[in-house]
From TrEMBL:
PROSITE patterns for this protein: G_DYNAMIN_2 (PS51718)
Keyword Manganese among record annotations: no
One GO MF term attached to the UniProt entry: GTPase activity
Gene3D superfamilies per UniProt: Dynamin, middle domain, P-loop containing nucleotide triphosphate hydrolases
The protein's name: Dynamin-1-like protein
Domain named Dynamin-type G: residues: 66-326
Length: 626
C-alpha cells in the first residue's frame, strides 16, 4: 500500500484555525465578554462545559497553564470525614478506604445528571476510557487505588472520575489528600509537607471554591481545612465550610452558632453546612441524617444535610462559573492560539506521508552538509562549529599531538642515539651489506619512534567522529526540527542509522591506521628524492667530520638531526598528509556525498514508515479531544 493512502493516518475532522465556535463548546459564542446567558443558559450544561475543559487541560501536552477552570476543592484533615462527605455527594462509596494515607493524589469527581432510562448509568475513569462505564463499584475502587500508586504513590497527577446517574446533582469537586501532621510508618518523611503544598496549589487559584471540612467534635479553631482556607482566602469570599460528625459532639454542646454564622470563631461568607456521616452500624440501626437533624436542629434542617449541600454546591459552582466565564473565555482564546500555532507545526503526514518523509530527510541532510562545510545553523551562533572544528582537529590538534610524539620518543632514546651517533648514522651510510649490524640498530630505533605516531593518528579519527556526532545531535534536537519533536521514533531511527554508519566507519579507519603504521615501521625504505638528498648531505657532513677529527663534539649536538630523526620526520610528514585524507574519506564524505548516509536513511525510513510517523499518544489524544 502506498504510504500516503494508509487508513491509520485518519485525522479527526477539524476546521482551522481553531476557534471557540469551531470547538463546539460555545455554539453561539461570539465575543468573550458578551452574551454569556445565551451561550450556556442552563446550569447542567454550564458545569458539563467546565468538565470538558477540565478533561482537556488534564492531557499532558503543551498547555502548562497555572489557571484552572472553576471548581470546588475539598480540603481537610485526614480524620475530618472528608471522604465520607464526598461519598455522600455521590450517593455511594467510590473512594478506596484503609489505614494511613489512602488518597495519594487529587481526585476530580465529575457528577453528571442523566435522564433515567435514557443514558447508561455508571462510573467512568479517565485512564480507563476504553473500558466504558462500570457499575461495579468494587472494581472502580480497585482501579482508583491502582492509579494512585503510579509514580511510586507521588501526589502529582490527578485522576478524573465521572459519575453518570439520575440521582446526582451535576457538580464537580476535587478531593485532595487529607492533611496530616504525623507521618505513618513506611510513608515518606516529607509527606505532610507535600500534601500541604499540593493543597495550597489548588486552593490558591482564584477560580477555586474552597470546601473546608472540619469535624464538629474537634476544636474548630484548630481545623486544618479552615486554617489552610483562611491562608488562601483571608476574607472568606470563596470558602464554604462543612461540619461533619455532628452526632459525635459532647453531650450538652452543639454547632448552632457555627451553622447560623453567629460564631465569631469562624467567618466564611458562603456559609457553614452541617452533615452526618453514617457508619455501617448507623445504617443497620436505620439511623438517618434527616432524623438526627430533625431531632437536634429542627429549625435549621432546611439549610443542612447532604441533600442541601449538593444543591448549595451546585448553585455556588454555577454562580462562580458565570463570574469566571469572561476571563475563562479569554484564556481559552489564548490557549487556542497556542494550539493553532502548534498544530501548524505538526507536519502534514496524514495525506502526504511519503512527501513529508522525503522533506525531513532532505532537510536533515542539507543541515548536516552545511555544518560540516562550515556554515552555522544561525548567524547568532558564535561558537566553533562543524567544519571549522574538524579543520582545527586536522591542522592544530593532530599536528600538535604528532610533535609531542616526536619529543616523547626522542626523549626515551636520546642516550642511545648520542652514545651511538656514529654507529647509527655512519652505519646507515654503508648499506652495502658489510655493516648489517649497524643497520639493524638503526632500524630498531626507527621502528620504536614510528610506533609513537599510532596514538595521535587514532586520536585524530576519534575527535572527528565525536564532532560529527555532535553535528548530528544538534540537527536531531527537537527545537531545530519539529518533525523530531512530534515523531520521536523517527528521531531515534535517524540516530541509529548515523551511529551504525559512524561506528562502522570508525572501526574501519582505526584498522587502516594501525595497518598503515605497521607497514611504515616494519619496512625501513624510501625512494623519496628529498629524503635521499638530505641523507646524502648528512653523509658528506659526517665523512668530513671523520676526516678532520673524531667527531666527539658533533656527536653531542642534539639539535643536529641524525639518521633516525630524519627518517622519522619523513614518515611523520607522510602520516600527517595521509591520516586526514583517510578520516575525511570514511567519516566526513559519507555525510556530504549524495550517495552517502542519505541513502541508508531513506531505505530505513521507508521500511518502517508506519511506526515512525505515528503521533505520540498524548498528542493524538489532544487532537482527537479538540
Amino acid at each position: 500500500m502506498h504510504p500516503s493512502s494508509s487508513p491509520w493516518l485518519t485525522m479527526p475532522k477539524m476546521s482551522f484555525p481553531l476557534t471557540i465556535r469551531s470547538l463546539g463548546i460555545f455554539p453561539n459564542a461570539s465575543k468573550p465578554k458578551s452574551g454569556l446567558s445565551s451561550i450556556m443558559p442552563d446550569s447542567r450544561g454550564l458545569i458539563e462545559l467546565v468538565n470538558k475543559l477540565q478533561k482537556l487541560f488534564q492531557v499532558k501536552w503543551t498547555w502548562n497553564t497555572k489557571n484552572r477552570v472553576a471548581q470546588i476543592v475539598v480540603v481537610g484533615s485526614q480524620s475530618s470525614g472528608k471522604s465520607s462527605v464526598l461519598d455522600g455527594l455521590v450517593g455511594f462509596s467510590i473512594l478506596p478506604r484503609g489505614s494511613g494515607t489512602v488518597t495519594k493524589c487529587p481526585i476530580i469527581v465529575q457528577l453528571i445528571t442523566t435522564d433515567a432510562g435514557k443514558e447508561e448509568e455508571g462510573i467512568e475513569l479517565q485512564d480507563f476510557l476504553e473500558d466504558g462505564r462500570s457499575q461495579d463499584y468494587d472494581e472502580v475502587r480497585a482501579k482508583i487505588a491502582a492509579l494512585m500508586e503510579r509514580n511510586g504513590g507521588a501526589i502529582v497527577d490527578a485522576i478524573i472520575v465521572r459519575v453518570y446517574s439520575p440521582n446526582v446533582v451535576t457538580l464537580t469537586v476535587v478531593d485532595l489528600p487529607g492533611i496530616k501532621r504525623i507521618v505513618s510508618y513506611g510513608e515518606p518523611s516529607d509527606l505532610d509537607e507535600r500534601i500541604v503544598s499540593l493543597s495550597r496549589k489548588y486552593i490558591n487559584e482564584k477560580n477555586a471554591i474552597i470546601l473546608a471540612v472540619s469535624p464538629a467534635n474537634y476544636e474548630i479553631c484548630n481545623s486544618e481545612g479552615l486554617l489552610l482556607a483562611k491562608e488562601a482566602d483571608p476574607e472568606g469570599n470563596r470558602t464554604i465550610g462543612v461540619l461533619t460528625k455532628l452526632d459525635l459532639m459532647d453531650e450538652g454542646t452543639d454547632a448552632r452558632g457555627l451553622l447560623t454564622g453567629m460564631s465569631k470563631d469562624v467567618q466564611v461568607k458562603l456559609g457553614m453546612i452541617g452533615v452526618v456521616n453514617r457508619s455501617q452500624k448507623d445504617i443497620e440501626n436505620n439511623f438517618t441524617e434527616k432524623s438526627f437533624l430533625s431531632n437536634n436542629y429542627g429549625d435549621l434542617i432546611g439549610q443542612n444535610g447532604v441533600p442541601f449541600l449538593r444543591k448549595r454546591l451546585n448553585e455556588l459552582l454555577v454562580q462562580h462559573i458565570y463570574k469566571c466565564l469572561p476571563e475563562l473565555m479569554e484564556k481559552l482564546e489564548d490557549m487556542l492560539k497556542q494550539c493553532n500555532k502548534q498544530l501548524a507545526e505538526i507536519p502534514n503526514v496524514m495525506t502526504e506521508t511519503d512527501k513529508f518523509l522525503i522533506q525531513v530527510l532532505h532537510r536533515f541532510e542539507n543541515e548536516i552538509k552545511k555544518e560540516i562545510q562550515g556554515s552555522p545553523r544561525t548567524p547568532e551562533y558564535h561558537h566553533l562549529y562543524g567544519g571549522i572544528v574538524i579543520k582545527d582537529i586536522f591542522e592544530k590538534h593532530f599536528a600538535k599531538d604528532m610533535e609531542a610524539a616526536e619529543k616523547t620518543s626522542d626523549g626515551s632514546m636520546t642516550p642511545c642515539v648520542c652514545n651511538n651517533f656514529y654507529i647509527s648514522t655512519y652505519g646507515i651510510l654503508l648499506l652495502d651489506g658489510t655493516e648489517a649490524n649497524y643497520f639493524a640498530v638503526f632500524r630498531k630505533l626507527a621502528q620504536n619512534q614510528i610506533h609513537h605516531i599510532e596514538g595521535p593518528a587514532l586520536k585524530c579519527a576519534e575527535r572527528v567522529y565525536d564532532e560529527i556526532m555532535k553535528i548530528a545531535d544538534r540537527n536531531l534536537a527537537e527545537e531545530n526540527d519539529h518533525a523530531f519533536k512530534y515523531f520521536p521514533e523517527l528521531r531515534q531511527l535517524f540516530k541509529r542509522v548515523i551511529n551504525r554508519i559512524l561506528d562502522g566507519n570508525l572501526d574501519e579507519v582505526k584498522k587502516q591506521i594501525i595497518e598503515y603504521i605497521r607497514v611504515q615501521s616494519s619496512v625501513v625504505f624510501s625512494m623519496d628524492y628529498k629524503f635521499l638528498q638530505e641523507i646524502a648531505d648528512l653523509r658528506r657532513k659526517l665523512e668530513k667530520e671523520l676526516y678532520v677529527g673524531d667527531g666527539e663534539n658533533s656527536s653531542d649536538n642534539e639539535n643536529e638531526p641524525g639518521m633516525v630523526k630524519l627518517y622519522f620526520r619523513w614518515i611523520k610528514s607522510h602520516v600527517q598528509d595521509y591520516i586526514p585524507k583517510l578520516v575525511a574519506d570514511k567519516l566526513i564524505i559519507p555525510f556530504t556525498n549524495d550517495a552517502g548516509f542519505g541513502v541508508a536513511l531513506k531505505v530505513s525510513v521507508m521500511k518502517d514508515y508506519k511506526t515512525l510517523i505515528q503521533l505520540p499518544k498524548t498528542l493524538w489524544n489532544v487532537v482527537k479531544e479538540i
